[in-house]
Structure formats: structure tokens, C-alpha cells
Amino acid sequence: MPPALLQVSHLSRTFGTMTAVDDINLSLEPGQLLGLLGPNGAGKSTTIRMLAGLLEPSSGTIRYQEWSLAEHPTEAKRLFGYVADQPLIFPLLTGWEYVQFVGGLYGFSSDEIKRKAWPLLERFHLIPAIHRRADHYSHGMQQKLALVAQLVHEPQVLLADEPTVGLDPASAAEMSHIFREFCQAGHAILISTHLLNMAQELCDTVVILSKGRLIAEGSPQALVDNAGDSLQELFLRLTREEDTGS
């Protein structure tokens, strides 16, 4: 059996005496869309930043297929894309220059980048603004541009931290369609989100974090069936129990 696209084992991160992420285990298989849920301060963004190689774990391992992120960062980083909650856009570049820059980092020619990116830009209605400087883009436009740039190199795994923040409903729906198509092509996605309805509709698996610990994991339907609640009610009950220690 081929290795998982992403395998996370006993991942922890401390900041002084505070434990932000506490012994998390995760895996992503081809075609899987995993939602990382939790209240503010639960450790979602810290987890994703470690998976993206932006923050060093205090302990634990992260592997993309056969490559350890710590031991073989270049090989591992070729296998994933990362969309931050605050898009990492160079403000003095035009939108198209930014897409070309990111695609060029992965060795694609201008023609290849255009072939891969243009249909996505059209779906997000970014073509009329694509030659404007990115600092003139709204947050939602920057978010869509960052996603397109990451999808150009067809990563095996896409990491997306609150990807729908700042998007209008039509753009959020289009992003969901693109995510489904991406997974149907054999890739995998890990997203963090506060939108429980979206997670319930979109994700194959959800993981609920509270105070850095994994407190529930499974398909949205299985979690709801076992608990007798909606996903929102289950989320609120579990995180409230963590807060009260009951």
C-alpha cells in the first residue's frame, strides 16, 4: 500500500509553559478532505503552520508521502501547497505576475502556468483585475488569487487556513466546487474553518481540537449519528465540556 499523502505523528508545540498543540495524530489519504475545527486558541493555525514548515514542532513527525518535513524539507515542500488566512501576496506585483512567480518556483513555463491558472481565474472572475497590482485587491480577491497560485503546481496536499474568510457566498461556493474536484483527482486537502455547516457538507473527515488536544474525529455524519446532535451542537457541547473540565 502506498504511503499516506500526509502522516502526522505525536505532533506537539509549546511556547514557554503553554502547550498550543498537544500530541496530535493525523493522516490524509488520496481523495480525502479533512476539516480542522475548534474555537479560537484551539491550536488550528499553529498546527497548519507546523504542517507548512513555518513553525518547528516541539516534538513529533510530519511526513509527506515518504519525505520527512524535518529531514527532507525541499522534497516534502514540493508535495504541498499552503494558503494562509492572511494571503501571502507580494503587493507590488500584479495578480498575474504573482501567479507566474509561484508557478515558476516549481519549474513551470509561462505557457504551462497560463494553461493551468486561466480556467481557475475565470471561475473566480479575476480576469478583469489580473493585471492590476495585488495591493489594490480586496481580501477576498487576494484569497482567491493565493489559492489559484497554489493549485497551479498541482500539489498532492493543499493546506488552507480559513480559506473562505472574506469571500462572498458565490465565491465560497465556487471554492467548495474546486476543492471537491481537486480531491476527486486524487489529491487531498486539510482546511481549518469556523464554518460548521460548510465542514459538515464538504469534509469527509472532521477533527475537533480544544486547548491543543484532539477531542473528536470522524466523518461528520458518523459523529452526528453517534452523538445524536447536529455538528454545531456536538462542537459546542464538546468544547464547553473541555472548558469546564466536565
From TrEMBL:
One of its GO terms (molecular function) is ATP hydrolysis activity. Coiled coil: none annotated. Residues 6-236 form the ABC transporter domain. Keywords: ATP-binding, Nucleotide-binding, Transport. Signal peptide: none annotated. Transmembrane segments: none annotated. It comes from the Bacteria. CDD domains: ABC_DR_subfamily_A. SUPFAM superfamilies: P-loop containing nucleoside triphosphate hydrolases. This is ABC-2 type transport system ATP-binding protein. It comes from Sulfobacillus thermosulfidooxidans (strain DSM 9293 / VKM B-1269 / AT-1). The lineage of its organism: Bacteria, Bacillati, Bacillota, Clostridia, Eubacteriales.
